[in-house]
């Protein structure tokens, strides 16, 4: 009688070290219809004895010693199966019948090589696409959400990606400054990092405590890759056009050595967005040494240098003129395209891991990682001249239309005209795509700089730059040390302990990139003369050289430091019909800022500041009730605190060391309950969830017009300020994310499956948080602090932004026995919003500064109309994919293709933000009533139909 296979856990599997013995282990592979699956490859991890199933699906391993083992079963068009088993003192061990289910979304079909490398410097971190988390998952909801919905910036449960954990070879890849993960650090190396282990949402993980947005664990042991070469060539029409990669793995030699190396390149002379280019490389080297059956060490190097340009968000006016592929960040110089926004960087990672099988019940993994390098982002800057961006509000037709038609205005070329004529000229230029109007005019910027008469500035004679390019630089040095300990008390009880330490140091500064024909630029605030009369305006008082040339630091220079320790014990056990997993967390972090510039406005700008220390704690639990072998009830709960990240802690770290008031540990209380069914014909998960977040701190920085500010000098003299760069801080923000998730996979025929998803959520703000305001134009306020309180921001019950709160998907998958497949699905999104800007929802927004009382005649209905939630249009999309694979002797060939947004829908807004440059009701409402508001919201639109074609060759 064939025994049933016993899995260690329904949702998480534990890789471990292995050793050889005297037992024969065997099993039979069958598909969902009970038919044998032949020619599947079965890989015994830590061993070079890979085998292939025969015509009746039979495979075996011989001479295995007692111990714990893991095998990975792969075959084109079938889900990758990962299994664990134990060998005792027995001659033969029968693993029974192992069922392989067909799949169309495995990473082997080329769908996971889509990269999310958009311009996220101008978008908040919460809008990160889930494309970065593509996976091969048994859970149908998670799989559809990642592969089909994630492409359209859908976030499961509306959870910010900063509340997750991504690990590479045992260490966290989370950046301490903002909590994000830079997936570009291993960009293009998909064949190396493609099979992560994932604990979904806030479920406990064996590798880290995590947050409430999944724990993703990637391991890159050189011996675990398929022996031989793998060549991949991809074509697409997104951020890049071409991708080429080659991987080689030696397998484990008799002397105990294994090597894996890979190189990749992605490039485009111009991407799908106008004026963008892409040039990125990826390299991996893995070396593994097996000292004994119980001891292995690995070395991993990962490096991915890149240089690419980014694209801009725009107002609806601009999209209506130029379409969704318009990009304001480029223009022509001497007839050649040139972008102002270029990101480039290289931050290689070096890692050493030690795997030690202490005894038959215990094992210990230890990881040491060091990452360093610079990330640079360029942008145009200017002094004492108008913003040269073609989408600056004074350069758009709507601005000229808002003026008296007979008013005199200055053309971009410096000539005078009337507002009426300027409107007609601007409108024709935008409608016809005149690059002198719709794009940056680099030649004009050079001409203005070179026309400057040489003068003496701070002892240097030359032409001062009015326009110039700068780089914002992050120079990082990150150490990580982590251990992962496992002890099996018996077959049903396991203890886990993870201990990690991170030392993060990042110098962040601005440097001169290009002077555009001038001799130098002044390291001086161009607004100081009007906003801070009588003060030096120097960004670094006391420095010898105020005139900066290419490569010199200017504007700001400071160091972020953070040390963090986490201890994460866990216990997994089974009793009766229950599987239980309890995980705890104790953490400590210490953060500080050291200023290297002495800013003219702030006494705390220079030198090392205070250490801000936070203790963290938490507990997670999972309970699985096995109704029977195919029906389960699953509960996941989490309650934990998280220290603020560096950019949330400091109000404006570029110029001072002040900390946002009342900053506390964020507290998360998350719960979900699921019904899971898994049969050969039906897979289903129905989940209800509730996630409450308290004490969150958010910081936004932008430029605002219409602010009634006053700067005060040392003698008490006041100066009115109407325009300024500002920081907006909200503390004690409370959020609630709740909803239902349903994922269904029905096998209608042996070769045909229907799949569906429904995600119905409601993500809201639960209170009116206190809002604080800071501005370099004001400096220190009358309270003696570099910020002032604006009182409460009335945003309770507003919807959170950044993702659709309703999503549905329905599709089919057809697998032909001749190893070709085709599939398609329909996706629908609704209830997507922009995050509410808090500044315009404070009491100051409705107060007339002349009377210190609400604006005359203002009614509640007027206010509701102006401040109603900014809801985005609903949309639907059709996707399709197809492919074919061949096995020719020892060679494997795969070709696959995916087309997203087949109907070329260009009306879907993936994200954006409200502009708050008019911070008073009278000017805000007046602007809102225009056909095209001068300061309307800025959006990112979906980019239309896209394709991805992938060819893979293994030999």
TrEMBL record:
**One Pfam family cited in the UniProt record for this chain:** CarboxypepD_reg
Annotated localization? Cell outer membrane
Q: Does the keyword Protease apply?
A: no
Q: Give the record's keywords alphabetically.
A: Cell outer membrane, Membrane, Signal
Q: Which Gene3D superfamilies match?
A: Carboxypeptidase-like, regulatory domain (2.60.40.1120), TonB-dependent receptor, beta-barrel domain (2.40.170.20)
The record's InterPro entries line, in alphabetical order, gives: Beta-barrel_TonB_sf, CarboxyPept-like_regulatory
Protein name as catalogued: Carboxypeptidase family protein
């Amino acid at each position: 009688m064939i025994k049933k296979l016993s899995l260690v856990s329904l949702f998480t599997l534990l890789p471990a070290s292995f050793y050889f013995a005297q037992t024969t282990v065997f099993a039979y592979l069958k598909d969902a219809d009970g038919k044998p699956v032949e020619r599947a490859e079965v890989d015994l991890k830590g061993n070079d004895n890979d085998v292939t199933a025969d015509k009746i699906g039979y495979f075996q391993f011989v001479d295995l010693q007692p111990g714990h083992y893991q095998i990975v079963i792969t075959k084109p068009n079938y889900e990758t199966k990962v299994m664990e088993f134990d060998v005792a003192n027995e001659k033969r061990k029968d693993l029974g019948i192992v069922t392989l289910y067909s799949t169309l979304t495995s990473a082997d079909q080329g769908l996971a090589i889509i990269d999310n490398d958009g311009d996220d410097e101008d978008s908040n971190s919460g809008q990160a696409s889930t494309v970065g988390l593509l996976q091969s998952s048994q859970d149908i909801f998670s799989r559809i959400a990642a592969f089909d919905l994630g492409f359209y910036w859908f976030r499961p449960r509306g959870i910010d990606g900063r509340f997750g954990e991504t690990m590479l070879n045992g260490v966290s890849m989370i950046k301490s400054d903002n909590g994000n993960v830079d997936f570009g650090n291993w960009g293009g190396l998909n064949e190396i990092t493609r099979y992560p282990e994932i604990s979904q949402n806030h479920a406990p993980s064996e590798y880290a405590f995590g947050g409430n947005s999944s724990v993703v664990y990637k391991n890159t042991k050189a011996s675990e890759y398929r022996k031989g070469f793998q060549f991949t060539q991809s074509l697409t029409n997104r951020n890049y056009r071409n991708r080429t990669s080659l991987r080689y793995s030696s397998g484990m030699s008799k002397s105990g050595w294994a090597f894996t190396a890979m190189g990749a390149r992605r490039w485009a002379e111009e991407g799908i967005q106008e004026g963008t280019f892409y040039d990125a490389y990826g390299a991996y080297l893995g070396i593994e040494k097996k000292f004994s059956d119980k001891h292995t060490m690995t070395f991993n190097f990962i490096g991915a240098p890149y240089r690419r340009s980014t694209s801009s968000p725009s107002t609806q006016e601009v999209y209506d003129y130029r379409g969704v592929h318009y990009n304001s960040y480029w223009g022509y110089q001497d007839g050649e395209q040139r972008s102002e926004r270029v990101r480039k960087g290289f931050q290689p990672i070096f890692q050493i891991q030690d795997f030690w099988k202490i005894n038959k019940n215990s094992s210990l993994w230890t990881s040491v990682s060091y990452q360093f390098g610079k990330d640079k982002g360029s942008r145009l800057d200017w002094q004492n001249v108008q913003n040269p961006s073609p989408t600056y509000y004074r350069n758009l037709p709507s601005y000229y239309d808002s003026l008296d038609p007979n008013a005199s205005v200055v053309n971009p070329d410096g000539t005078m005209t009337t507002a009426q004529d300027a409107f007609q000229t601007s409108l024709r230029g935008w409608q016809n795509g005149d690059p002198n109007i719709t794009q940056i005019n680099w030649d004009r910027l050079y001409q203005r700089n070179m026309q400057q008469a040489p003068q003496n500035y701070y002892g240097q004679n030359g032409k001062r730059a009015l326009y110039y390019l700068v780089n914002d630089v992050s120079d990082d040095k990150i150490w990580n040390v982590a251990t992962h300990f496992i002890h099996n008390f018996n077959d049903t009880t396991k203890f886990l302990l993870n201990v990690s330490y991170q030392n993060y140091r990042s110098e962040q500064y601005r440097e001169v990139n290009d002077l555009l024909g001038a001799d130098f630029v002044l390291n001086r605030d161009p607004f100081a003369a009007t906003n801070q009369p009588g003060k030096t305006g120097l960004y670094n008082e006391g420095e010898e050289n105020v005139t900066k040339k290419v490569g010199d630091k200017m504007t700001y220079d400071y160091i972020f430091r953070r040390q963090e320790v986490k201890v994460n014990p866990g216990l997994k056990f089974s009793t009766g019909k229950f599987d239980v997993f309890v995980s705890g967390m104790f953490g400590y972090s210490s953060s500080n800022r050291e200023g290297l510039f002495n800013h003219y406005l702030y006494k705390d700008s220079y030198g090392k500041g205070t250490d801000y220390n936070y203790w963290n704690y938490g507990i997670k639990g999972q309970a699985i009730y096995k109704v029977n072998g195919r029906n389960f009830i699953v509960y996941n709960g989490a309650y934990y605190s998280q220290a603020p990240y560096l950019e949330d802690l400091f109000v404006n770290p570029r110029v001072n060391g002040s900390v946002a008031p009342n900053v506390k540990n964020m507290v998360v209380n998350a719960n979900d309950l699921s019904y899971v069914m898994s049969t050969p014909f039906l897979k289903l998960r129905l989940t209800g969830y509730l996630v409450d977040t308290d004490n969150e701190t958010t910081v936004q920085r932008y430029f605002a017009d219409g602010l009634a500010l006053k700067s005060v000098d040392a003698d008490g003299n006041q100066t009115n300020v109407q325009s300024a760069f500002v920081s907006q801080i909200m503390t004690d923000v409370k959020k609630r994310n709740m909803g239902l998730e349903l994922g269904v996979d029905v096998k209608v025929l042996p070769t045909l499956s229907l799949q569906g998803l429904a995600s119905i959520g409601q993500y809201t703000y639960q209170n009116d948080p206190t809002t604080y305001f800071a501005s370099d134009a004001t400096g220190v306020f009358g309270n003696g602090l570099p910020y002032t309180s604006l009182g409460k921001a009335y945003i309770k019950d507003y919807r959170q932004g950044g993702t659709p709160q309703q999503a549905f998907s329905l599709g089919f998958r057809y697998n032909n026995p001749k190893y070709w497949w085709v599939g398609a699905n329909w996706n629908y999104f609704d209830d997507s919003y922009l995050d509410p800007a808090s500044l315009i929802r404070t009491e100051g927004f409705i107060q007339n500064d002349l009377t210190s009382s609400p604006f005359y005649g203002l009614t509640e209905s007027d206010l509701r109309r102006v401040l109603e939630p900014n809801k985005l249009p609903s949309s639907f999309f059709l996707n399709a994919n197809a492919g074919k694979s061949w096995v020719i002797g020892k060679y494997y060939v795969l070709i696959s293709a995916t087309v997203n947004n087949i109907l070329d829908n260009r009306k879907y807004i993936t994200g954006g933000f409200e502009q708050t440059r008019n911070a008073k009701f009278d000017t805000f409402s007046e602007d809102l009533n225009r056909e095209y508001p001068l300061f309307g919201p800025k959006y990112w639109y979906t980019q239309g139909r896209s394709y991805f074609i992938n060819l893979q060759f293994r030999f």
